[in-house]
Each structure stands twice: as C-alpha cells, then as structure tokens.
Write a structure and sequence with these properties.
Elements: E1 2-6, H1 12-19, E2 22-26, H2 32-39, E3 44-47, H3 55-60, E4 66-69, H4 79-84, E5 88-90, H5 97-113, H6 115-123, E6 141-145, H7 149-160, E7 164-168, H8 174-179, E8 182-184, H9 187-193, E9 196-199, H10 213-217, E10 224-227, H11 236-244, E11 250-253, E12 273-275, H12 284-302, H13 318-342, E13 346-355, H14 363-378, H15 387-393, E14 397-403, E15 411-419, E16 422-431, E17 435-441, E18 444-448, E19 453-460, H16 465-475, E20 480-487, E21 493-500, H17 508-514, E22 518-525
Parallel strand pairs: 1-2, 1-3, 3-4, 4-5, 6-7, 6-9, 7-8, 9-10, 10-11, 11-12, 13-14
Antiparallel strand pairs: 13-15, 15-16, 16-17, 17-18, 19-21, 19-22, 20-21
Helix pairs in contact: 1-12, 5-7, 13-14, 14-15
Residues 48-49, 70-73, 96, 278, 280-282 line the site of 2-oxo-3-(phosphonooxy)propanoic acid.
Length: 526
C-alpha cells in the first residue's frame, strides 16, 4: 500500500480521500532534518505553506511521486528540483480564491474603520469613539496589482462598494480588465492615484520587493496597502519606515518575508497597521475545497492516473485534461509501441495529429507519446513531468504536423520513430469514447485493439504462412488470442498483428524469422 505524509494541517475530508488508497501519516511541525529522515518512506507528500520542500528534501524522497500543495502558492516547493526527479507538483488553483479575496476585502475595510484596534480598546474597558474615526471606501480608488483569480474577485466586490478600479497586470488583456470594470494602467500611475493598493500576484524574482522605498515614495501619503498574496513582495523594512514617517497611510499584511513573523518593527506600529498570521485561506469552506481537490489528485497519481492541476506539466489544465485524457492514453500506447518496433536509440519522433485532434492542444499528447516512447529505457522513472526533459537530454527531436481532414475516425494519431535501427510507424484512434485501436502499422492498415503481449511480423502475403507461424507458436506453447493481417495489395508485403496470452519465450523470434516469407518479427509488451 502506498504511503502519504501530511506535514501541514489539512481538513479531514482530504485525509479520508487519501485513506482510500494509502496509509496516511499526519506529522505536523516536523523540522527539516526530521522530514529528510523520514521522507524516503513516502510516495506522496501533502503540504500547505508551512512546510518548505527544499531540493534536499526532494532528493531524500526517493519514492516520492507527487507533492500536493493544498492551496495556491507553490513558492515553498523547489518545483524545478521536483521536475528533474519526475515528481508531480499539484496545487488547488481555485479552492481558496474566495477566502483569500474576502480576507483582502476585510483588510481594506478593517484598515478604513480601525476595527482591530477599536475592538481591542473596547475589550480593554474603554469607550473611545474619537480615536477611531474612519474613512469610506465609496468613491475611493482601489489599485489591484495582479488581476488573476483572487484579484478579479476583489475587483468585482470592490466595484459593488462603489470604488473606482485601476489594475496592473501585464499578462491580461484590456478587454478582460474592462469586463471587470477596471482601467488597466501602468504600475507607476496606479501607485500615484490609488487610495488603496491590494496585491494579488505570485512572488517571483520580478515581484520581490516590488513595494520598496522608491515605489512607496510614489504613493499618496494617505494610501493604504494590503498584502494577502506573498511575503517578500513588500520590503517590510522600507514599509515600516514609510509608515513611521507618515509617507503612506496604512498597511494590512497577512503574509511576511519570513513566517512565522519574528522580530519586526511592524509589530510596534499603531492602528494604521493590521497584521494577521497568513489567514487568507483559513476558512472552513476553503480548507475543505483545497483538501479535497489536492487529495483527489494525490489519489489519482497513486492509482496511475494523471493529475488535473499539475503545475509542472505544461499545458495540462483540468479542462484540457478532461478532453484529452483518452487521447493521452492513446498517445502513450502508440509511443510505447513505436519505440519497441524501432528498437535502438530513437533520434526523431514525428507526430501527426489528424482530424479533430489537429485543432487541439498538442503539448499533452506529445508529452504522453514521449512518456510511452521512453518507457522501455526508463520504466517507472519516466512520467508526464519529466518526459520532455528526458527526451531532450537523449537528443530526441520531435516534429509535429497537423492535418484537420477527417478520415475513418474523428481523430487519429500517427507516430513515426526514426532511430539507429531504422524507421517504424504506428497509427491509432479511439473507438467510441475511449477504446484504443491500432489502425496502421508501418503503413499497413489493420484494426486491432492493443494487448499486453503482441507479436508483429512483416511477411510476404502468401498461402500457408499463417498456418506455419501458428504451428511454430503452438510448438512453443504460445496461445494466440487474436490475429489480423494487414496488406496493401494481394500477395505483396503484409503485416501480421497477433495478440498472445503470455510473453514470447526466449529464442522464438529467431525461429519465426526463419519461416520462409517472414522478413521480420517484433515482440512488444504494452
Ligand atoms: N494569503 C493567503 O492565504 C493566500 C495567498 N494566495 C496568493 O495570492 C496570490 C494570487 O493568487 P491567484 O489570484 O490565485 O493567482 P492567479 O495566478 O490567478 O493570479 C495572479 C495574477 O498575477 C499576474 N502577475 C504575474 N506576475 C505579475 C507581475 N509581475 N505584475 C503584475 N501582475 C502579475 C498574473 O498575470 C495573474 O493574473 C498568489 O501569490 C497566491 O499564492 C492565494 C491564496 C491564499
Ligand atoms: O494558497 C495559498 O497560496 C496560501 O497562501 C494559503 O496558505 P495556507 O495553505 O493557508 O498555508
């Protein structure tokens, strides 16, 4: 049974899902050295933002197949290190969107009305109404930095509160911003004009210390800044200095450069500063959402299925995956088959997407075909995550072509592998929704479902040959489950595809090739 380590606090709904397929150990608060010591036993690791999954931990996780982040940000995971090791990293891109957006909105209102300090003062026994006179957000300008999932929801709600919206996000269109009622502007303009600035961007090298002494100096002295995205986007020392000097009006922070927040000037500031301990995603609803979302993906990967929100598999979003899953299976099977027919080292893989596939995203299919192709060399070490890197490192050139014309099937996939031992090709299609059929091998039309053990021969189409092959296999106690011949012309060259019940015994291929009329034979395990 697989083993999953849960090293941060996760909702029980996730643990219940994992327990269906694995032994689940919940160990919260492990020190890095303790995690390194035990991670080697586990197939999957489920975390939130508290566990830092470093390269050292990934390297110690020799059995790890998947790291599941029950939340959005994967900046606490060394994703490149995981990718190199073929470990899938998944997250829950939408499970806590509303929770984080509502926290940012709560921060905006709490800052405006001094709610935390007013509350603390009443609880201390005071009744001080004069110290807590606030400001309205109505008709004020909100600058949204990062108009993604969370930023968009913040914008939508802020709009209904009567705020004027500016947004900065270099990766979204003016139309999208307009749909949300936002005016897309340059960052400097946003800094200059906003009464409130809310950050909803990932932490990247470009966004680290985006808010610093220079950018803070561009803001209105009354501006209030909210960070419910990531610590480190704001230079906290510069922020504390700007607040103290009255260069900006206030700040509400949920995330910090170093968490838990240690010694900090920010703690000593008054009602203009609100600090929460990374609570953006901490609602009952969001925790159920992210736990289920990520646990299901871990379960799927343990069961050998692809994950729907892998951050390190290019182009494999949930919508794409749902549509392409059966075709990815087809691509993988064909890749595995053509790799075995080609034998030796493959140098070029031609992939032709035909019919309805021609208009689809090709990247997941290429990755799946490469995974299949490399299976003989790498076995379980190759997966959707590292197939492209492994192929590149082996010098396999991928050429993709598309042909939208529809032939016998709605969509077909054609793979041709050229390597040190020659060129071979296979074509396949789906029958109904998901039944794989081989429709062509080396240019000869056939129509067979692939099976675990197969034998292919290239032979002359002449009387008696099928009988001879049948008897030969019989003499080696090989049971034939099905057999089909594909030929282009009568008595010309032909291909025979046989499904057999067991692997072909040693030495029998040499005997098959000796049968008069048989030119070549290939055994394949799928
Ligand atoms: N405080 C908390 O507990 C939580 C924090 N988060 C954090 O919130 C942030 C946003 O999350 P989502 O909205 O789900 O992500 P998202 O991926 O939907 O949106 C991020 C947006 O930022 C934009 N962006 C990227 N680089 C940018 C740059 N240099 N300048 C301006 N815009 C840039 C992208 O184009 C995208 O539209 C993430 O950092 C995430 O980790 C998310 C959930 C909870
Ligand atoms: O989802 C995110 O990016 C978050 O920051 C939430 O973090 P958490 O899961 O609450 O530790």
């Amino acid at each position: 049974m697989s083993k999953v380590l849960v090293s941060d606090s996760i909702d029980q709904a996730g643990i219940d899902i994992l327990s269906q397929v694995a032994t689940v150990d919940v160990k919260i608060g492990l020190k890095p050295a303790e995690l390194i010591e035990i991670i080697g036993e586990y197939d999957a690791l489920m975390i939130r933002s508290s566990t830092r999954v470093t390269q050292e931990i990934i390297e110690a996780g020799t059995q790890l197949k998947i790291i599941g982040r029950a939340g959005v940000g994967v900046d606490n995971v060394d994703v490149p290190a995981a990718t190199r090791r073929g470990i899938v990293v998944v997250n829950s891109p939408e499970g806590n969107t509303i929770a984080a957006a509502e926290h940012a909105l709560a921060m905006i209102l709490a800052l405006s009305r001094h709610i935390p300090d007013a509350n603390a003062s009443v609880k201390r026994g005071a009744w001080d109404r004069n110290s807590f006179v606030g400001a309205e957000v109505y008709k004020k300008t909100l600058g949204v930095v990062g108009l993604g999932k969370i930023g968009s929801h913040v914008a939508a709600v802020a709009k209904t509160m009567g705020m004027k919206l500016l947004a900065y996000d270099p990766f979204i269109s003016t139309e999208r911003a307009e749909q949300l009622g936002c005016q897309l502007v340059e960052l400097d303009l946003l800094f200059q004009q906003a009464d409130y600035i809310t950050l909803h961007i990932p932490k990247t090298p470009e966004t680290t210390h985006l808010i610093n002494a220079t950018t803070l100096a561009k803001m209105k002295p009354t501006a209030r800044i909210v960070n419910c995205a990531r610590g480190g986007i704001i230079d906290e020392v510069a922020l504390a200095a700007a607040l103290k000097a009255g260069k900006i009006g206030g700040a509400a922070l949920d995330v910090f450069e170093s968490e838990p927040l240690g010694e900090s000037e920010l703690r000593s500031l008054g009602k203009e500063v609100i600090l929460t301990p990374h609570l953006g995603a901490s609602t009952a609803e969001a925790q159920v959402n992210v736990a289920i979302d990520v646990a299901e993906q871990i379960r799927d990967v343990i069961l050998g299925l692809p994950a729907r929100s892998a951050v390190n598999i290019p182009g494999l979003g949930p919508d794409v995956l749902e549509e392409l899953k059966p075709y990815m299976q087809l691509a993988e099977t064909l890749g595995n088959l053509v790799g075995q027919l080609a034998g030796g080292r493959v140098e070029v893989l031609n992939i032709r997407l035909q019919g309805e596939l021609a208009t689809n995203k090709s990247q997941p299919l290429i990755v799946a075909a490469l995974k299949g192709l490399l299976y003989q060399a790498l076995r379980e070490r190759v997966n959707y995550v590292n197939a492209s890197i492994e192929a590149k490192e082996r010098g396999i050139r991928v050429i993709e072509t598309r042909d939208a014309s529809i032939r016998d099937y709605a969509g077909t996939l054609h793979l041709e592998a050229t390597g040190t031992l020659g060129t071979h090709s296979v074509t396949g299609a789906l029958l109904g929704e998901r039944e794989i059929h081989l429709t062509d091998v080396d240019g000869f039309p056939i129509n067979v479902p692939p099976s675990k053990y197969m034998l292919f021969t290239l032979h002359r189409d002449m009387p008696g040959i099928i009988g001879k092959l049948g008897s030969l296999l019989g003499s080696f106690n090989v049971n034939i489950a099905s057999m089909q011949v594909g030929r282009k012309i009568v008595r010309g060259d032909a291909v025979m595809a046989l499904s057999i019940d067991d692997p072909l015994p040693e030495g029998i291929l040499d005997e098959i090739i000796k049968v008069p009329g048989i030119r070549d034979a290939y055994t394949v395990t799928l």
